[in-house]
Automatic annotation (TrEMBL):
Summary of the function given for this chain in its UniProt record: Membrane-associated protein that warps the membrane surface to access and bind aromatic isoprenes with high specificity, including ubiquinone (CoQ) isoprene intermediates and presents them directly to COQ7, therefore facilitating the COQ7-mediated hydroxylase step. Participates in the biosynthesis of coenzyme Q, also named ubiquinone, an essential lipid-soluble electron transporter for aerobic cellular respiration.
Official protein name in the record: COQ9 family protein
Family: Belongs to the COQ9 family.
InterPro entries xrefs: COQ9_C, Ubiq_biosynth_COQ9
Domain (COQ9 C-terminal) ranges: 124-193
Originating species: Novosphingobium aquae
Matches recorded under PANTHER family: UBIQUINONE BIOSYNTHESIS PROTEIN COQ9, MITOCHONDRIAL
Pathway(s) the chain acts in: Cofactor biosynthesis; ubiquinone biosynthesis
Amino acid sequence: MTADLTTDLTLAEVRLLLAPKIARAAAFDGWTMAAVEMAAQETGVDPGKARIAFPGGAMDMIDAWTLSVDGQMADVLPAGRIGNLPIRERIRRLVQFRLDAVGADREALRRALSIMAMPQNLARAAQLGWRSADAMWRLAGDVATDYNHYTKRATLGSIYAATLTVFAHDTSEDLAETRAFLDRRIEGVMKFEKAKARLLANRDMHFSPARFLGRLRYPPQ
């Protein structure tokens, strides 16, 4: 892409354009401005504009990288394409897509995980994980608006983060350890969701003082 074609890009567009190439360069230069400048040179973006696009440094670069993967995932695995699959298979495919998307940049991923684990970055890292988990659940067809909305995303976010860590250091053939780890975690979540559904159903079948008092206060019309 030439500089003429990138002149009118917003900073948000510049971040998304550069993010994958920054990740590629980060394997050698780390998540630094050197990687940003390398990506800018490759894409034809003005280096000054590229530097301005990442005022928060490494975490801004990692944020843009994860956001670019979110976009790729939505393009390749839209809800209409995977909606007829069992829910566990939808989640497995979505997580696996993300692993495949960053697979060529595992050294950059290892460096990114180290940066996100720094105390000053934990809150931001949690936000990125939540955003990715939310993107996956939406593509999987989740429409929950009650507390399930939050528990599902918190659970998937923790699974995804743990799987990324295993993936980043997996030396097994065909990444067998990562695949087995992911399958075990998804199976655990499915069992938990089934148990939670039974618990809620049983709760609704039993006497509830709160519901009884509520009905006294607001009797049916």
